[in-house]
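Entry 14. Structure prediction run on the chain below.
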Amino acid sequence: MSLRVATWNINSVRLRADQVARFVAERAPDVICLQEIKCRTGEFPEQAFRDMGLPHLKVMGQKGWHGVAIASRHPIEDAPDTKACREGHARCVSGVIKGVEIQNFYIPAGGDVADRALNPKFDHKLDFYEALTREFGRRDPSHPLLLAGDFNIAPGENDVWNHRHMSKIVSHTPVEVETLKRLQASLGFVDVVREAIPEPEKLFSWWSYRALDFRKSNRGLRLDHLWASPGLHPAVAKKTARVHDDVREWERPSDHAPVTVDLAV
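Output returned:
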């Protein structure tokens, strides 16, 4: 069977539950990994997700900030928790669906100054990555594992609107890109979106709200990722990964667009 997995920084799930329902109706994901749900666990709109055909939920909420969730058509079994956030934020949630372990992350943005000594938020971001790198470096690469979420780093020159400018801005600085690469190398993860849409094609999943017309300015970043372990990679349906950038055109959208991939499980 095919399992379509989506990742989406929804930027308030209660505000945009109707948009999730529309996306589910139009694009038919079987699993959605959400970030920045911005509600406590008990405030998550469970009935809305049951109504849209995603009754199986794992939610890690937090009052007003952060928060992650996995919503699925199929039952979600327990998976090992990843203790990567030293601040205790709701930034990680995991589960096993149809034999595939899914780890969903909202990695810290890191503030404005790319200096660990001067900026505790940036230090937190790199520390989070380092914890994940240690964790997955101990894993079995043959295990079917998908990393999903808002990683808050755009890795390649064509994942940002202007490489030279953005290399000085948190989200694309050299130290962040190298940190991301170390995480990817820890288990040999495959960036399935870039595999489906190779460089040098420009590819973004986030656009600032500051632009009145995000397509015209097109100052985007590819911050949202889906990575497959070597054990899962053979199940990735080739050329199916995509960014649904048209969703960014919807009324009162999130600043992030959903990203999907199809798996043969």
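The radius of gyration is 17 Å.
Filed with the rest of this week's runs.
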